[in-house]
Amino acid sequence: MHCHNCIIDELKFEILVEDKDHPQMISYIINNLNRTNTWHCTKGKILIIKESGVRDFLDFSKDHMNQEAIYFRIDHGEWRPISEVYGILDMRWVDELIMNESVICYFQPIVNAKGEIYGYEMLSRFTREDGSLIYPNEVFTAAKKRERLYALDRLCRMTAVRYAAPLKKKAFINFIPTSIYSPEFCLKSTVQLANELGADPSQFVFEVVETEEVGDIAHLKKILAYYKKKGFKYALDDVGEGYSTIELLSELMPQYMKLDIKYVQGVVSDSGKQRIATEFLLGALQIGAVPLAEGVETREDFEWLKKCGYVLFQGYYFGKPSLIPKEERILDI
């Protein structure tokens, strides 16, 4: 059983009409939508219309109503001008992508100081019917606008577990904290899948994505506590900006902390980046987290970070994301 956010039902748009002539117009609209079975219900001044009827409503309203007095929202979100609804309708393709599970995983190696494969970051890649790839940012943007972020995050998380389980190495899997309403409910399927695959939960490291601003730290702590209780590990990205105090880090107690790419690339010759990288390292060690430098692209940066004390490394210098995971030691280190 899934929550409604993980099920791709037809969207229902709440339409608020503040046109002074709206009572008469509303009756016309309802009659027409009834004939096409696309009207859902009415709540006061609000029409609730199935997505399949929204374009008909738009065509009618352009000719007979003041569009500046019409607003819409989805799933009790914020009211927005009706003109913005076109973009959401044009992104319906992301629903098909999720329903068809059109996602694969690429593996990017994570290595230790000796160049030995420690694990992989699991990176979701999305495919069209012809097999070509869609940029992840395009997919997540569309999902967010259509209130599908919850379902997309779950699909990516479950797919990554399936791809990673046979490798028996650490798998770093991104997740979006705001997509999880209740850890006990929303993450239950992840735990069940790992068990079904016979995977050791400690193999999986769930990573808070750096692009998602986490405003509710209490909720994040609840999620991480659930992961820990079930035997999973977790990592934090972009720690220097999103989680600025050692007190907060001590509360979250991540097993891994990732130094952001902007402090990694060129660190060998930038004193400012060196200072931040050193402070980050000390902060990680203070709370017992493994420091990982991501975005390493040159041997010079790698050598500096290794000498500084970093334990794990990730970046194009060791290998680009690929469908087939590297399983051997990186030989040129």
Automatic annotation (TrEMBL):
It comes from the Bacteria. InterPro entries: Cyclic-di-GMP_PDE-like, EAL_dom, EAL_sf. Residues 86-333 form the EAL domain. SMART domains: EAL (SM00052). This is EAL domain-containing protein. It comes from Paenibacillus alginolyticus.
